[in-house]
């Protein structure tokens, strides 16, 4: 499909991380963009916080919208300890912890500022390709819309993927339960700009003191039996907190103190993954972010990959006037990066809670070297680099 971009309507389904970032780039490149988001509220009270890796911030800086991170807290390093509290290693990368809902809300505002239309309470229920290659979108409220191009940034349980790529793999339970919250603690916890990670005996725990007496924390642990969102939500916060305290009974005492001091909701969710798709697009419909590759959470890289996708897809569409050619180029470019991150996330997951003492000992011995090697590799330029942003003249 070619033709002047201003005539091209792009429907972005899902206004989480990738969706509104893509919308900013496309609106600036001359497309007419509408975001369809299933949720109602401006700031979604969902999913606790995430840690954004340096490249996530770089994407936002490249697009000139890094102000969306203003509500976050910068971490100047990530420290790793074992269950006894023994320090193992430090990763000096600068990252940002930010509430998911706050980041999505700020990104959506940034998209609106670029002239993007945001339609809330629009849950995609079906997607049908028309004979001329355009798409009809139907929503759960009975309304419909049309678009020349559809991008599904609707997360791990993507409806765009289900309809546009019916043979794509379906999400499977990753065997991990995640949870997190905000705790109010005594001021003996120092605001030190560090994201503290602990390999607990039966779960992985991370926290940052974001201001005197306030801590953001998360916990991931393996559970082979799947529990649904509803089953987890049906437990009271107290029941959930007590189960976490029990899980970390033999770990450093501060972890139990942080969990017990949770103020407000303690979020919890089963983690699903989707192996990277063979094919990310059909015709002029494409999936990005978790919809294309929901990886295990152990590396804390999913949101950064989603932002990279949004940047790189826009850049490809600016380089290539033909949408389907740009889609093919984008997919070919992203495959290796995503595959490498999946591999690293799996590796990290495999050392999270080893069953045997000797596996733990090996992990504790080799982790400092592995982290040093990773830092050296990225310093030497072997890390991922974003494509240069194509000049506007090519995009007209
Ligand atoms: C336990 C856990 C911990 C994590 N920790 C980190 C971390 O520390 N760092 C990190 O980088 N990543 C982390 N991630 C991953 C990260 O959250 C995701 O990779 C990221 O949010 C993906 O962004 P996205 O835009 O693709 O999808 P999402 O952020 O999931 O956004 C999808 C959007 O689509 C909307 N939607 C869904 N269905 C429809 C529909 N049918 N119609 C319309 N809208 C719809 C949703 O409401 C949502 O707003 C973690 C994930 C888990 C599970």
TrEMBL record:
Pfam families membership: FAD_binding_3
Residue span, FAD-binding domain: 9-318
Name of the protein: 2-polyprenyl-6-methoxyphenol hydroxylase
Lineage, top ranks: Bacteria, Bacillati, Actinomycetota, Actinomycetes, Actinopolysporales
UniProt GO MF annotations: FAD binding; monooxygenase activity
Keywords from the UniProt entry: Monooxygenase, Oxidoreductase
Organism, as annotated: Actinopolyspora alba
